[in-house]
Amino acid sequence: MDGCGSPGNALHLAEIVAPKLIRDGMYLAGLDIVGDKMMEINVDTPGGISIAEDLTGVDFSGHVVADLERKVRLRDLYNRTLSNVALAMM
Predict the structure, then answer these.
(1) Which stretch of DSSP H or E encloses residue 12?
(2) Whole-angstrom Cα distance, residue 34 to residue 10?
(3) Which residues pair with 12 in a beta bridge?
(4) How many angstroms separate the Cα of 78 from the Cα of each of 8, 45, 63, 87?
(5) Cα-flanking dihedrals φ and ψ of residue 11, to 5°?
(6) In contact, 34 and 52? CB cutoff 8 Å
(7) Taking the model in full, what pTM does it have?
(8) Cα–Cα distance between 78 and 36 in angstroms, integer?
(9) What is the chain's pLDDT, residue by residue, as a tens digit (90 residues)?
(10) HSE-up of residue 26 (Cα within 13 Å, Cβ side)
């Protein structure tokens, strides 16, 4: 594992929890990480996108909104029979 608080460590923790969050139907979640410990998972208000955009110059929020719109279209095409778990994995 990388040093405390390093981006590699955060990515490693995200990779560990991602399968469980997806199985629970979570599409977007924020992880509060301090050092090598995950303190909290935010599923209602996953912050950090604006900071990531500022640091990288990538329009993450635009991509997230476009993908959410795509998921809504898919849900409607399937007459709202797709579960959140199925939509999270699409």
Answers:
(1) helix 7-23
(2) 9
(3) none
(4) 38, 28, 23, 11
(5) -60, -40
(6) no
(7) 0.65
(8) 41
(9) 334 456 678 889 989 999 999 889 888 888 998 888 899 999 877 778 888 888 899 998 899 899 999 999 999 999 999 988 888 888
(10) 18
